[in-house]
Amino acid sequence: MEILAGYFAILLPTPPQKVEDKLKEIKECEKKVENTLSCMNVLIRKYRKKKRM
Q1: Verdict on whether the full-model pTM lies above 0.90
Q2: pLDDT recorded at residue 42
Q3: The domain containing residue 44 runs over which residues?
Q4: DSSP characters for 24-50?
């Protein structure tokens, strides 16, 4: 459940056309990273960096 919450935390502030890009990003990341949680941490870090700029 908390994984889904993480996904939504990333997707909520995102306009609909970008949500699909994010989902693709998540899926590609999951292919590369077997552990979904570490994948989420990577995405959240990237997202936070973007937000700061």
Answers
A1: no
A2: 78
A3: 2-52
A4: HHHHHHHHH-S-HHHHHHHHHHHHHHH
